[in-house]
Write a structure and sequence with these properties.
By secondary structure, this protein is of the alpha/beta class. It contains 9 helices and 16 strands. The strands form 4 sheets. The protein has a 10-stranded mixed beta sheet, with helices on one face. It has a two-stranded antiparallel sheet with strand order 3-16. The chain has a two-stranded antiparallel ribbon with strand order 6-7. Helix 7 packs parallel to helix 8 (about 295-310). It binds iron/sulfur cluster.
Length: about 375
């Protein structure tokens, strides 16, 4: 990270606009941020397109605060018409990559805006916002290096980075290699792969980039990743395999998709075939413009039990942030000037950083 860019990050923060909306869920806190990061882009509806990020504190995770950051403006799979069918981000225009500095900026400002250092100082950073992190790998990797240097200067530590991908084999291997070679120091990184189906035929239907990177290649890249990570002391060796629960989901006109039969789950377990490294996570479907029948808790529990019998540690995951439209697949980045809960973040939050601290922070390459 060049000094010039870092100074821009710390001193100016781009003058971005934020809309903020707090989740009405009483237990958890979810706050949506929308950033205007590039030349203003107007959509057909006349609204501006921005980049969304989220700040979360879950009732079960009071010891830590999480930020979900975006890595692209939109998603680059849109450019090749292979965006995931269930994801609203993929329905937006793709406007380009975000730089490492812009990624750090999102996380840092959200953490400071919510007083994280005064609370626990423990921050989880999830590359789970808008965009495919593996398609912007270099900048995401630079942002991890940047966070690792910058956070301690604000009395924070990263407890974990979540690298969440729809599955780009080369970049998964690259991440393993980088971890093995010590690029990220002591940072803990957990790989999440959005699998959602156990056959190519099924996965092509909902994650069309699978046509470029079929399941066999993807699985072999994850196993290679694991071989690298196994050689790193204290590395996070588990890989989360995210499996969204689709029930009669209308992936396109005339086609419906279901992956919640006991047989699908048995076959998923057989495909993974490694309870030591893989943690299947059954993810609640987040409401979007494409209909999906609901899946009851008892149905999900039954599927979970099948995986547990096969020796997998697993869980049912209900994302945070539904009522703020901030959950996975719901991010659209609409800048609505009339947003009821809008406030402008005080960017001066970083103005008083000491010169000496700045110098130290500028050691980032
Ligand atoms: S889920 Fe991720 S990879 Fe798929 S379209 Fe959305 S942003 Fe892109």
């Amino acid at each position: 990270m060049s000094k010039k860019n870092l100074l821009k990050l710390v001193r100016k923060i781009d003058g971005s606009v934020n809309n903020i909306k707090q989740d009405s869920d009483e237990k958890d806190i979810s706050i949506k941020y929308i950033w205007e990061v590039a030349d203003t882009h107007f959509r057909a509806d006349g609204k501006k397109q921005g980049v969304e990020s989220g700040y979360f504190v879950g009732i079960d995770y009071e010891d830590r605060h999480s930020v979900t950051v975006s890595t692209q403006q939109g998603c680059s799979w849109t450019k090749v018409s292979k965006q995931c069918t269930f994801c609203e981000t993929g329905q937006q225009d793709y406007l380009g990559q975000l730089s490492g500095e812009q990624i750090v900026q999102q996380g840092l400002v959200m953490a400071l805006d919510n007083g994280t250092p005064e609370k626990t100082g423990q921050l989880e950073v999830a590359f789970m916002g808008m965009g495919e992190p593996a398609a912007n790998y270099n900048e995401v990797a630079r942002s991890i290096e940047g966070f690792e240097v910058i956070l301690p200067n604000f009395k924070m530590n990263s407890i974990r980075y979540i690298f969440s991908t729809s599955g780009v084999p080369q970049k998964i291997i690259q991440l393993g290699k980088d971890l093995y070679e010590g690029r990220f120091g002591n940072a803990k990184i957990r790989l999440h792969v959005s699998l959602h189906a156990h056959t190519d035929e099924q996965r092509n239907e909902i994650v069309p980039i699978n046509k470029n990177f079929p399941i066999a290649d993807l699985m072999s890249s994850i196993r290679e990743y694991s071989r690298y990570v196994d050689m790193v002391e204290n590395a996070d060796k588990l890989v989360s395999i995210n499996y969204m629960l689709f029930n009669n989901y209308k992936s396109r006109p005339g086609v419906s998709f279901t992956n919640i039969t006991p047989q699908s789950i048995e076959e998923l377990a057989n495909l993974l075939n490694d309870p030591l490294h893989f943690r299947p996570v059954l993810c609640e479907f987040n409401e979007c413009s494409t209909p999906n029948d609901s899946v009851s808790f008892s149905q999900a529990e039954e599927l979970k039990r099948i995986l547990e019998k096969k020796g997998y540690k697993t869980k049912i995951f209900g994302s945070f942030g539904h009522s703020a439209n901030l959950a996975c697949g719901q991010l659209v980045g609409t800048i609505d000037e009339n947003c009821r809960d809008q406030k402008i973040v005080d960017y001066n939050i970083l103005k008083n950083v000491e010169e000496s601290v700045l110098e130290e922070m500028c050691q980032i390459k």
